[in-house]
Inverse folding.
């Protein structure tokens, strides 16, 4: 039975103030902020671990929430900084990434999915929208460099699902580093790279979903 997409209008009293849009960081393109506001809200109750705690904070601590390295639709290595299952959400996005080299940000609810696709590999990170783009893309650039330095092409293209999961802890270490103290050089390089592709950087997830598809966190 196909999954259905339900786009619901906001109902007074239903939205929690915690999930209102945060102030826009200085490095985020206005187009992203506007795109984020335009994404429809899918019906259904929020997962319990997305509900703010008693101190009015989200339950995850890192601004980089989930990251992976994939070859096509095959996830080779991944790490989550959160207890939720992001496999359905990321697989839906991976299936829509074109085979050509590209850098893009997909907007979905309060999240941004940033990716670099190059040489048949995709480096993707899911981040809170409050952190903007520069730091996540700096993270992706460093992730790409470390992964392709560690593994030769023959190993990469012979690996199956989670075939290089020995790299998972390295992804986790990088996520923590960039969430807490990102290297200045990496941020500067990311700023230059973003300036070159700023006009093609943002797309709403709804625009890439086929009829009957739905993204949800499990």
């Amino acid at each position: 039975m196909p999954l259905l997409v339900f786009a619901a209008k906001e109902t007074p009293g239903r939205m929690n103030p915690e999930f209102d849009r945060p102030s826009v960081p200085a490095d985020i393109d206005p187009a992203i902020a506007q795109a984020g506001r335009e994404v429809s809200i899918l019906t259904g109750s929020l997962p319990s671990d997305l509900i703010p705690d008693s101190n009015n904070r989200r339950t995850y601590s890192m601004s980089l929430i989930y990251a992976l390295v994939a070859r096509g639709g095959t996830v080779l290595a991944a790490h989550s900084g959160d207890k939720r299952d992001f496999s359905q959400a990321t697989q839906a996005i991976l299936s829509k990434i074109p085979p050509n080299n590209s850098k893009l940000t997909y907007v979905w609810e309060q999240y941004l999915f940033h990716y670099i696709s190059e040489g048949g590999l995709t480096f993707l990170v899911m981040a809170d929208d409050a952190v903007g783009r520069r730091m996540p893309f700096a993270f992706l650039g460093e992730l790409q460099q470390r992964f392709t330095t560690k593994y030769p092409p023959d190993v990469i293209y012979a690996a199956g699902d989670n075939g290089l999961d020995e790299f998972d802890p390295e992804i986790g270490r990088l996520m923590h580093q960039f969430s807490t103290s990102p290297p200045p050089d990496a941020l500067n390089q990311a700023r230059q790279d973003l300036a070159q592709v700023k006009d093609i950087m943002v797309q709403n997830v709804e625009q890439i979903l086929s009829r009957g598809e739905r993204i949800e966190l499990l």
